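Database export, one record per block. Field names are fixed; values are copied verbatim from the stored entry.
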Amino acid sequence: PLYSSAASDVYKRQTWLLQDTLEKEIRLLLENAVKTQNPNCEQAQKACDLHRQWLCLFWPEGIYSKTAHKALGNIYVSDSRFKTYYDQLGENCANFFRDAIDIYCSK
Protein backbone atom coordinates (compact mmCIF):
# COMPACT_ATOMS: atom_id res chain seq x y z
CA PRO A 1 0.00 0.00 0.00
CA LEU A 2 2.83 2.43 0.78
CA TYR A 3 4.36 1.94 -2.67
CA SER A 4 1.09 2.54 -4.48
CA SER A 5 0.54 5.71 -2.49
CA ALA A 6 4.04 6.95 -3.30
CA ALA A 7 3.60 6.04 -6.96
CA SER A 8 0.27 7.86 -6.99
CA ASP A 9 1.89 10.95 -5.48
CA VAL A 10 4.61 10.89 -8.15
CA TYR A 11 1.98 10.53 -10.89
CA LYS A 12 -0.04 13.42 -9.46
CA ARG A 13 3.09 15.60 -9.27
CA GLN A 14 4.05 14.74 -12.87
CA THR A 15 0.51 15.46 -14.05
CA TRP A 16 0.50 18.80 -12.23
CA LEU A 17 3.86 19.75 -13.76
CA LEU A 18 2.64 18.78 -17.23
CA GLN A 19 -0.61 20.71 -16.93
CA ASP A 20 1.28 23.74 -15.62
CA THR A 21 3.74 23.58 -18.51
CA LEU A 22 0.94 23.14 -21.06
CA GLU A 23 -1.04 26.04 -19.58
CA LYS A 24 1.95 28.39 -19.74
CA GLU A 25 2.73 27.39 -23.32
CA ILE A 26 -0.91 27.81 -24.39
CA ARG A 27 -1.01 31.29 -22.84
CA LEU A 28 2.24 32.32 -24.56
CA LEU A 29 1.11 31.00 -27.93
CA LEU A 30 -2.25 32.77 -27.63
CA GLU A 31 -0.64 36.07 -26.58
CA ASN A 32 1.39 36.03 -29.80
CA ALA A 33 -1.23 34.47 -32.07
CA VAL A 34 -4.03 36.90 -31.19
CA LYS A 35 -1.87 39.74 -32.56
CA THR A 36 -2.01 38.12 -36.02
CA GLN A 37 -5.83 38.17 -36.02
CA ASN A 38 -5.57 34.84 -37.88
CA PRO A 39 -7.06 31.98 -35.85
CA ASN A 40 -5.70 29.54 -38.43
CA CYS A 41 -2.08 30.64 -37.92
CA GLU A 42 0.45 28.04 -36.79
CA GLN A 43 0.71 29.42 -33.22
CA ALA A 44 -3.07 29.46 -32.73
CA GLN A 45 -3.45 25.92 -34.01
CA LYS A 46 -0.56 24.72 -31.83
CA ALA A 47 -2.29 26.34 -28.84
CA CYS A 48 -5.44 24.38 -29.70
CA ASP A 49 -3.51 21.11 -29.90
CA LEU A 50 -1.86 21.77 -26.53
CA HIS A 51 -5.29 22.71 -25.16
CA ARG A 52 -6.61 19.31 -26.32
CA GLN A 53 -3.70 17.64 -24.51
CA TRP A 54 -4.42 19.72 -21.40
CA LEU A 55 -8.10 18.73 -21.46
CA CYS A 56 -7.20 15.06 -21.78
CA LEU A 57 -5.22 15.29 -18.53
CA PHE A 58 -8.45 16.06 -16.67
CA TRP A 59 -11.22 14.48 -18.70
CA PRO A 60 -11.69 10.73 -18.25
CA GLU A 61 -10.30 8.64 -21.08
CA GLY A 62 -12.63 8.56 -24.07
CA ILE A 63 -14.52 11.74 -23.11
CA TYR A 64 -12.63 14.10 -25.42
CA SER A 65 -14.30 14.81 -28.73
CA LYS A 66 -14.03 17.63 -31.23
CA THR A 67 -17.67 18.48 -30.48
CA ALA A 68 -16.95 18.81 -26.75
CA HIS A 69 -13.82 20.86 -27.48
CA LYS A 70 -15.79 23.24 -29.71
CA ALA A 71 -18.50 23.56 -27.06
CA LEU A 72 -15.87 24.50 -24.50
CA GLY A 73 -14.55 27.17 -26.89
CA ASN A 74 -18.05 28.65 -26.98
CA ILE A 75 -18.16 28.69 -23.18
CA TYR A 76 -14.89 30.63 -23.17
CA VAL A 77 -16.78 33.44 -24.92
CA SER A 78 -20.19 33.16 -23.24
CA ASP A 79 -19.02 32.77 -19.62
CA SER A 80 -17.60 36.06 -18.36
CA ARG A 81 -15.13 34.30 -16.04
CA PHE A 82 -13.43 32.52 -18.94
CA LYS A 83 -13.76 35.52 -21.25
CA THR A 84 -11.99 37.72 -18.70
CA TYR A 85 -9.24 35.13 -18.26
CA TYR A 86 -8.51 34.82 -21.98
CA ASP A 87 -9.04 38.49 -22.84
CA GLN A 88 -6.19 39.32 -20.45
CA LEU A 89 -3.91 37.75 -23.07
CA GLY A 90 -4.94 40.18 -25.79
CA GLU A 91 -7.85 42.08 -27.22
CA ASN A 92 -10.77 39.73 -27.93
CA CYS A 93 -8.57 36.71 -27.24
CA ALA A 94 -11.50 34.61 -25.99
CA ASN A 95 -13.28 35.05 -29.33
CA PHE A 96 -10.02 34.44 -31.18
CA PHE A 97 -9.39 31.23 -29.23
CA ARG A 98 -12.96 30.04 -29.86
CA ASP A 99 -12.49 30.64 -33.59
CA ALA A 100 -9.13 28.85 -33.52
CA ILE A 101 -10.67 25.88 -31.71
CA ASP A 102 -13.49 25.76 -34.30
CA ILE A 103 -10.87 25.59 -37.08
CA TYR A 104 -8.78 23.04 -35.18
CA CYS A 105 -11.79 20.81 -34.59
CA SER A 106 -12.90 21.06 -38.23
CA LYS A 107 -9.68 19.43 -39.45
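Remark 1: The CA atoms of residues 15 and 57 lie 7 Å apart.
Remark 2: The first helix runs from residue 2 to 33.
End of record.
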